[in-house]
Amino acid sequence: MNDAATENDIPAHLTASARDYASLLKPRVMSLSIFTAMVGMVVAPGPVPSWGLAVLSVIAIALGAGASAALNMWWDSDIDGRMARTAARPIPTGKVPAAEAFGLGIVLSALSVWLLALSGGYLAAGLLAVTIGFYVVVYSMLLKRRTPQNIVIGGAAGALPPVVGYAAVTGAAPLEAWLLFALIFIWTPPHFWALSLLKKGDYEAAGIPMLPNVKGDAVTREEIFRYSVALVVLAPMLAVAPLAGWLYAAAAIILGAEFLRRAYLLRRSPDNTGAGGLFGFSIFYLFALFLVLLIEHWAGFHG
Amino acid sequence: MDKDERSLDLAEAREGLPTGELHQPTEAEIKARDKRNIAIALAVVAFIALVFATTMLRLSQNLPQGGAS
């Protein structure tokens, strides 16, 4: 390039902004991890020992979530460009070189785990490291392009933040913390499969073996319904543990009934009508259940 | 290459002479790079503040045990 170069000749990465790098961290997914980790902290028994350290732990968990997102975008940059949903991400558009996304992901992973070790202890830091490793290596590298069960097993990474939060304030991860894990883990398949029914063409173009592409829509709708039944049975059972009360149980039953109704209608719909509605409702469902848990604890239902 | 020439080369190397790249950054590139540099600086300062805050909070947690004796 010489002095006569015009704006159009400039490679995109030379004019990249900090915002382009920040978008590698998938801020919206990050916010969900922050929220569920925070709920894990609040529902842990006893008062939070230090709110200052709890806030720092949440920041560390958020950085860890961002790090795994950046590493995921680095690994998937070849297929992201082939899907309409992800084509505008910074690596496919040339705004950020893939190697820089890798570097950012690795550095942020190390710093987030280290910061959490300082603020929340070694167990929480270890669980965060497992979360990042599971999402990047097990889900992105090993499962995503190989099996339609990718999001079922990979869902474990998205389900771990509340356990990390719980461990950060108590230094332990007992069975009741894993009930929160189970709730998100069972919620993940119907949530993602509803989306994959809508984005089947995208996944086809990228060669990702999502369930509708491999087994067809009817099998996917049936599987969504089965997981929805498991979810609405599991969700109210959290009230048996000390972390949830009657208000949560009532919310889980009412919202669960609506979840099941939507999953049932989708199951009977040959043209996937209602898949978008179920996808949207599934987000509201999980958010509402966790919000009710927060309200119960802040209102002092659990002493 | 005699001794004088070698020392001249070393002196020139310290001046950061061109490495063979012919790219002249445009105004837009320089502006974008400056903004990225500021963002990196702010991120580093923020991280230092986080580690400092964590250290202070951890130390203050341990004060009661230390002061009890």
UniProtKB/TrEMBL annotation, chain A:
Family: Belongs to the UbiA prenyltransferase family. Protoheme IX farnesyltransferase subfamily.
Any Pfam family matching the protein: UbiA
Biological process according to GO: heme O biosynthetic process
Transmembrane segments: 29-48, 54-75, 96-116, 122-142, 163-187, 224-257, 278-299
Protein name per the record: Protoheme IX farnesyltransferase
Catalytic reaction(s) noted: heme b + (2E,6E)-farnesyl diphosphate + H2O = Fe(II)-heme o + diphosphate
Organism: Parvularcula maris
Lineage start: Bacteria, Pseudomonadati, Pseudomonadota, Alphaproteobacteria, Parvularculales
PANTHER family, per database record: 4-HYDROXYBENZOATE SOLANESYLTRANSFERASE, PROTOHEME IX FARNESYLTRANSFERASE, MITOCHONDRIAL
Keywords: Cell membrane, Heme biosynthesis, Membrane, Transferase, Transmembrane, Transmembrane helix
Top-level taxon in the UniProt lineage: Bacteria
InterPro entries cross-referenced by the UniProt entry: Protohaem_IX_farnesylTrfase, UbiA_prenyltransferase, UbiA_prenylTrfase_CS, UbiA_sf
Automatic annotation (TrEMBL), chain B:
Protein name, entry field: Protoheme IX farnesyltransferase
The keyword Transmembrane belongs to this UniProt entry's keyword annotation: yes
Domain of life where this protein originates: Bacteria
Residue stretches spanning the membrane: 38-59
Swiss-Prot/TrEMBL keywords: Membrane, Transmembrane, Transmembrane helix
Region (Disordered): 1-23
Bias type Basic and acidic residues, positions: 1-15
